[in-house]
Specification:
Radius of gyration: 37 Å
Strand content: 15-25%
Mean pLDDT: 83
InterPro entries: Immunoprotect_excell_Ig-like (IPR029050)
CATH topology of the largest domain: Immunoglobulin-like
Keywords: Membrane, Signal, Transmembrane, Transmembrane helix
Number of helices: 8
Number of strands: 11
Oligomer: single chain
Order of helices and strands: HHHHEHHHEEHEEEEEEEE
Region (Disordered): 1-24, 110-161
Structural class: alpha+beta
CATH class of the largest domain: Mainly Beta
Biased composition (Acidic residues): 110-129
Number of domains: 2
Largest sheet: 5 strands, antiparallel
Transmembrane segments: 28-46, 52-69, 76-103
Length: 290
């Protein structure tokens, strides 16, 4: 049998041998801080995950500060601090840009188109054969006429009665305007106030069609009177109930339509216009009285 060897005695004063498990400095905290900062940076610039980024970045910032005071993790802590601060700055910029875009989209005016009754009749009468037979010069002239037609609805070139005014959520048609309708308005309700001196009531008949989602009230469409000198008169400027059916009291779902009357006061003999706003943020369209 072999005799086990006895280790040589350690001379007095010799330091103990280092433990291999503790000889390498630990950088765990620095690694955690840096990984958290990188993840927070990435999530902070992703629109659908920004909340996660805003949670991770402060955590990474605190861990980085602590790691900087631990010599093994100092370098990683510095990098984690830089990444977390940079992620916060860039994430804030991305957030501001997204909010600004959302606000601009929410409050931007809807694009409004105007189609006169004559244009609608021409579109119905045009056949595919006639469209195919048009040559290049005709197409160019049509493009020019369409461009000119696109200017219909301004104060200088108001749309005629019966024009179809289409916004993002509402389609509006001014069916008729009854001038000097004071007697009809006073007969509609005994409590109606008479118009002011030098003014007369007029009745505007409006048909609205809701194009948006779910439902809405036709009161979202505004119809005002603009005098020749540019003064705006709204229906709320007088205390008169319109003859039935009254406009602005009907809830409509998608595709539904309603027709109602609006009472406006106008100076006698004034050659003003109607201003139609087909929705809360839609552009104004001006319509002639006849």
């Amino acid at each position: 049998m072999s005799t086990p060897t006895t280790p040589a005695p350690v001379p007095p004063g010799t330091p103990p041998a280092p433990d291999p498990s503790t000889s390498r400095p630990r950088r765990t905290l620095g690694i955690i801080a840096l990984v958290t900062a990188i993840l927070g940076f990435l999530f902070a610039v992703i629109p659908g995950a920004m909340l996660v980024g805003w949670i991770l970045l402060p955590i990474a910032f605190v861990l980085a500060i602590v790691a900087m005071f631990q010599p093994p993790s100092r370098i990683l802590g510095i990098w984690a601090l830089v990444v977390s601060v940079l992620g916060g700055v860039i994430g804030a910029i991305v957030f501001v840009v997204l909010v600004a875009g959302a606000v601009d989209e929410a409050f931007s005016e809807d694009e409004v188109t105007v189609e006169t009754a004559a244009e609608a009749e021409d579109a119905e009468e045009e056949t595919e054969a006639e469209a195919a037979a048009q040559d290049e010069s005709q197409n160019e002239s049509e493009g020019e006429s369409e461009g000119a037609a696109g200017q219909v609805g301004t104060r200088d070139n108001p749309a005629p009665l019966g024009s179809v005014i289409t916004g993002e959520e509402w389609e509006v048609v001014i069916d008729a305007v009854q001038l000097d309708a004071t007697d009809a308005v006073m007969a509609a309700n005994q409590f109606n106030d008479p118009p002011a001196d030098g003014e007369a009531y007029l009745i505007v008949t409006v048909t609205t069609t809701y194009l948006g989602q779910d439902s809405s009230y036709d009161s979202m469409v505004d119809v005002d009177y603009v005098t020749a000198d540019g003064t705006v008169i709204t229906s709320s400027d007088n205390f008169a109930v319109a003859p039935e059916p009254e406009f602005g009291m009907t809830e409509l779902f998608t595709g539904a339509s309603s027709t109602g009357n609006i009472v406006l006061a106008a100076p006698l003999g004034d050659t003003g216009l109607l201003r139609v706003t087909p929705g809360l943020f839609a552009d104004d369209v001006f319509v002639a009285l006849n």
